[in-house]
Structure formats: structure tokens, C-alpha cells
Amino acid sequence: MKCPICDGSMERKKVPYSIGGLKLGNFEADACSCGEIFFTETSSDAIDKKAKEKGLWGLEKRGKVGYSGNSLIVRIPKKVAEFMNLEKGGDILVRPEGKRRLVIEVE
Ligand SMILES: [Zn+2]
Predict the structure, then answer these.
(1) pTM score, whole prediction
(2) Ligand 1 centroid, distance to 6 Cα (angstroms)
(3) Burial of 84 (0-12, 13-18, 19+ CB in 10 A)
């Protein structure tokens, strides 16, 4: 199998997969040296199953940045809030990790 991103050759191997920093395990995938990883269909099913078992299913959500007054607003999906025990009025610490990652810590 050729990598659709860089056209390099892909290697079938076990690759670790995690959601929200929690490891789900190693799963069979086609991996390229450019960093592109495609999990096999069997692995995708296994990942879904594991994620559901651990209550991590559907925690990743895409969203858009909104704004209110002078602040930008990022909506936190209900499932994520529940998973992290986030509540209205709760204290958080917002910290950028580089230009592409924003970390919210629950205090
Ligand atoms: Zn590649």
C-alpha cells in the first residue's frame, strides 16, 4: 500500500492509539515514515469498542470559535464536560502549548 500523502511505502505494524491522553492500546495500522497512519478496519472497530468500554466514545468533537465582547468562546461539548467534571462557574486554567494546541486544566 502506498501512502496517499507522500507516496512512500507503508508498513503494517502495531501503533498506539489514545484519546484525551488515555491510552487505548496498540492497534494494527499501515504507517508511513511521514507520520501518516491508517488503522485497518478491524483496528477501527476494536478502537471504537475500547473507547466505548472506557466511556471515551465521542469525546473528540470539532467546533468553531465564537466570540462575546472582547473574548473568544470555545464551546465544550456536554460529553467532554461530563467526562472532565466541568461545571458552569468551575475554575479552569487555559494554557497554550505552542501555536496549535490549547490546554484547559480543571482546577
Ligand atoms: Zn507518507
Answers:
(1) 0.57
(2) 4
(3) middle
For the chain, the domain total comes to 2
Q: Is residue 60 part of a domain?
A: no
Q: Which residues neighbour 63 within 8 Å (Cβ) at sequence distance 6 or greater?
A: 74, 75, 77
Task: State the distance from the centre of ligand 1 to the C-alpha of 19, rounded, in angstroms.
Answer: 23
Give the distance (Å) from ligand 1 centre to CA of residue 46. Answer: 24
Residues 6+ apart with CB under 8 A from 13: 28, 29, 31
CA of 1 to the centre of ligand 1 (A): 11
Q: Are residues 49 and 82 in the same domain?
A: no
Instruction: Convert the pLDDT of each residue in 71-98 to its tens digit.
Output: 888 888 888 888 888 888 999 999 999 9
Residue with the bigger pLDDT between 58 and 46: it is 46
State how far the Cα of 77 lies from the Cα of 91, in Å rounded to an integer: 17
